[in-house]
């Protein structure tokens, strides 16, 4: 019929459309599968580290193990004061101190933090007194103390007398001699009598090659 335009079909158009749809469907499925694999580990609940009291662990061949077990312990080792308050908590891996180790005073105030790597102290050891005053900070590398001996700093009041006691276990305390930084005499003393209000820094030297105590208390009279 004149004036009429014939519509010719375009071979393959329907096939291409169907093919593209299948391609997008398969691509979307694969992308979802990959995303699921990537996100799956993040969906796992974190399992808290096992916490065991120090008296339930024994030292065998240089490694901490649970009593009557042969596998090296991994988890948190804790100690408590007689009244049940936390005394210390240390991260342990494969039977060795590995990670952060912390200790507290009897009043619950943090006393010390120290970092261990495979059983050896390695990092900064920081100590606080029972009033939360930082009293010492020591850099340790592979078990060796770097720099100066422990330094204690406090605000001295006029007319007051100050002395220092030290301990390795927060139970037994003994007097510790110290040197006053900036003083004309460098000899160690057992106490300091303040004649004015001032900031005082003292150094606790090692005693005949023996390492200084781990903890300190400042006594005021």
What report would you give on this structure?
12% of the residues lie in helices and 42% in strands. The chain is mostly beta strands and 221 residues long. It has two domains: 100 residues, Single Sheet (Histone H3 K4-specific methyltransferase SET7/9 N-terminal domain); 73 residues. The strands form four sheets. Strands 1, 4, 5, 6, 7, 8, 9, 10 and 11 form a nine-stranded mixed beta sheet that branches. A hairpin with a 6-residue loop joins β13 and β14. The longest helix is centred in the N-terminal third of the chain and has 27 residues. It starts with 12 loop residues before the first helix and ends with a strand. The N terminus is likely disordered.
Amino- and carboxy-terminal Cα gap:
122 Å
Total DSSP E strands: 18
Radius of gyration: 33 Å
Shape: elongated
- Biggest sheet features: 9 strands, mixed
Q: State mean pLDDT (0 to 100 scale).
A: 79
CATH topology of the largest domain: Histone H3 K4-specific methyltransferase SET7/9 N-terminal domain
Low-confidence spans: pLDDT under 50, at least 5 residues? Answer: 1-16
**Number of domain units:** 2
Approximate strand percentage = 35-45%
Task: Specify the number of helices.
Answer: 1
Order of helices and strands: HEEEEEEEEEEEEEEEEEE
Residue share in helix: 10-25%
Given the helix and strand composition, which structural class is it? mainly beta
Which CATH class of the largest domain?
Mainly Beta
The CATH architecture of the largest domain: Single Sheet
